[in-house]
Amino acid sequence: PPTEPSAHDYLSRMGPVCHEKSVCLPEETQTNINLMDVFNFVDLLPAKNGEEPTMQFLLEIVEILTNYVRKTFDRSTKVLDFHHPHQLLEGMEGFNLELSDQPESLEQILVDCRDTLKYGVRTGHPRFFNQLSTGLDIVGLAGEWLTSTANTNMFTYEIAPVFVLMEQLTLKKMREIIGWPDGEGDGIFSPGGAISNMYSVMIARYKFFPEVKTKGMTAAPRLVLFTSEHSHYSIKKASAALGFGTENLILLNTDKRGRVIPADLEAKVIEAKQKGYVPMFVNATAGTTVYGAFDPINEIADICEKYNMWLHVDGAWGGGLLMSRKHRHKLNGVERANSVTWNPHKMMGVPLQCSAVLVRERGLLTGCNSMCAGYLFQPDKQYDITYDTGDKAIQCGRHVDIFKFWLMWKAKGTVGFEQHIDKCLDLSAYLYDKIKNREGFEMVFDGEHTNVCFWYTPPSLRSLPDGDERRERLHKVAPKIKAMMMESGTTMVGYQPQGNKVNFFRMVISNPAATRSDIDFLIEEIERLGHDL
Amino acid sequence: PPTEPSAHDYLSRMGPVCHEKSVCLPEETQTNINLMDVFNFVDLLPAKNGEEPTMQFLLEIVEILTNYVRKTFDRSTKVLDFHHPHQLLEGMEGFNLELSDQPESLEQILVDCRDTLKYGVRTGHPRFFNQLSTGLDIVGLAGEWLTSTANTNMFTYEIAPVFVLMEQLTLKKMREIIGWPDGEGDGIFSPGGAISNMYSVMIARYKFFPEVKTKGMTAAPRLVLFTSEHSHYSIKKASAALGFGTENLILLNTDKRGRVIPADLEAKVIEAKQKGYVPMFVNATAGTTVYGAFDPINEIADICEKYNMWLHVDGAWGGGLLMSRKHRHKLNGVERANSVTWNPHKMMGVPLQCSAVLVRERGLLTGCNSMCAGYLFQPDKQYDITYDTGDKAIQCGRHVDIFKFWLMWKAKGTVGFEQHIDKCLDLSAYLYDKIKNREGFEMVFDGEHTNVCFWYTPPSLRSLPDGDERRERLHKVAPKIKAMMMESGTTMVGYQPQGNKVNFFRMVISNPAATRSDIDFLIEEIERLGHDL
After folding, report:
1. Check whether domain B7-26+45-120 has CATH 3.50.50.60, yes or no
2. Which one of A5, A157, A505, B19 is least enclosed by Cβ atoms within 10 Å?
3. Do the Cβ atoms of A40 and B85 come within 8 Å?
4. A253-306: per-residue pLDDT in tens?
5. Does the beta-carbon distance from A130 to B158 stay under 8 Å?
6. What CATH architecture applies to the domain A152-210+220-402?
7. Which chain B residues are within 8 Å of A497, Cβ to Cβ?
8. For residue B249, what is the nearest residue in chain A, using CA coordinates?
């Protein structure tokens, strides 16, 4: 047997319970077994006699995690402790990211876990506004812990009976909320909104040109897709990946609020047809990434019906508003869509990842993706195999994303999600009102979602006349403030340019922990950091 | 304020700490706040005064989960408690899967969690052999719990600094193990082997015909892909999705062990060229799904070089053998591949999901997928933005799959993975030797991986002469035994037909908990259940 790592190392990793070799031997000790196998085996598994140290290890992990959760919600802690890549790579106070051939002790593993959290970003912190997905719902977190403990796969009812049914019932509920009669249709949870959007393009193509599945894109005429110039870049990624080509994705003009102008869609459809191309797919966004704009779905649906095009609604960000009686009108017409992307992991505060694509017509998802793998989807199983979902997916194995969402829905009820949505929109109204007339702030638009976009102009720039110099200098303000924010670790908010607009802040509110005082803090922090720029 | 659910309901959910309204109010109570908001808020978050009940809830969840882990490894418990879909949908002993508008109590949430586990499948049970992914590594599980608590997204260094670096270092280590000089190249963790394989086809297309990204598949000649008739169906799914068409995926003949016959590849390449098509991509499988066959990579690589084709190695299942000095020769030539799929969540026992695609040439992954979204990948950030990985992906948001793997690697060292792999292969050799001459058992082939495929013939069929009747009856044996196995819940193993071979059992060993006694149990269970068929 190899001499390193020594059996002693393994022993010392496992604590006192394992010091007696005979105690640690698993049931099979017949042949060819060496000490390393035995102790490694004990390390891996709570075998009968190794149970206690293993459980002790898990409980120490839980201690680390619950401390982290407590601190995450404590406003006196930082959102992050920023370090540059080279600093972390060089090893912060003994935190060594490199992998080695020899095992570490379990004590060191616990230290690694603490360090991993220490140098990370607290996305659940009440002052973390950097992404569309923020917050840390405790029931959702419990759901994720259970999911990883169950460690199974969504592809068959056989090995995920409960989760498969939960997914089916939840998707039906979502379709009812969209407004499809009796919640009929189909759908699947996918690894994020980009993949959900990709599904929609694939299914649309299968609906109109099913022969592409077998013969490829050359079997179809030149197909054209349409989406807003403000839409998410995943539509462009799908056009490239699926073989349409990004040039065949036509970008639509928007109004001041970032909403698609329906007349522009119709004009571009007609233009494409005149060139002999086939307009096939329109994506209407419900809640654009930067502006939070809602495209006018009904007017777009009219055009889609007139020209026989597939209507997809990308509600990755705005779909959550369907849960609110007060705000769901912003998605009026969504029931006319052929497919909808809706990410509970964004506006509804479900932990990452949780994204659904919903399809109005049953059968398309399977027709499009089915390859009938014999080793997984045996037709001669003893149960009703229509519950096996794997052949609908472009994936084979599929992570269980449903449980945390289902559990949160149980815990909150539909009304709980509604309250959360309404509260976030109230907070964004509060922010808008707070800064629309505040000195040094300028709004980019008057929006409909929790996106509030604004420029902060430091005193030194305020007297400059409009023009290139002012624009160039203003363009540098947001990145500078953001960098200082991250260095000081007090709060985080996104920024970007858009079209001909120089860098501005994009505030988004989806964090259930956020209150008005956090909004106040953010604004004062921007003023504090930016005052002398 | 709405009257239902009453504030009292919310109060009663939260236990004694919350009975005093004033205690529960979060810091912001200024305006427009109603009781529902307050108590729902407390439910969601461990705000200062709601901290204790929330922590209590999390600890009760942990109690449920650790009990589940204990039982999972206890051979006296069942692998599953099988029920048909309609039974679970009707509600088992009060386990109600339906979602409702009103919230449930946290006590009921705990009951739901227990029921979810009760009616699920214990994929970590030492007698669960049903899938390529089995087992429950405790360090990996701890890693998943931490990952969900950190609840962040891989797309930028900004919000996942530690995880992004861990991914980078781990991918480099994997490339070193593949054998690429200095571990150079690129790669990404994706949501499963099917998506990793899809990446490989996309990248190959981008390498040879970059204009497809902008102009679509019609800009390229007719492209042809090659893969084994035994390869995973994800290659076919990719051909359909990416616009090649499944007819342009040519299936290659295999030998008795299920390995691609290189001469057949060359003949089919020549045939395709004669038709004017362009052979572009060859997938060689390292560890096929059913047979566990390793295609001869070196001979295939010779042909790929000769005809200028991309060589992908799908090592989703067999990639783990690269960690074993004893078994890695089965992948000889893998260093000549242009890309490799390797799923640590299969043979290496990492919790689901954990799949990597590795690419030899740097720059292709970004070139192929980059769309430069301004709101996420700002060029004017304060840190080195080459660490932002999001624009390499077809996803936007991307789940953190790296941490559990990194943590397991730390805990085991490379040697720990090697021991695990060697042990699994030893166990499969034990199984093979055990049944190759056993009455009633017939081997399908003599394999190289942990896949052991065999027929069990009940006594009543043994005297039947070879022929259609025997074949038809034998075809029904495995499904019947499997059904009885699931009803009794004692063990689980897969079965399927393959080509002209009727249903046979496919035993696979990746579960670190499995021992020889579990193998013995499986065989005796098959005999017990199948004896009177």
Report:
1. no
2. B19
3. no
4. 999 999 999 999 999 999 999 999 999 999 999 999 999 999 999 999 999 999
5. yes
6. 3-Layer(aba) Sandwich (3.40)
7. 374
8. A214
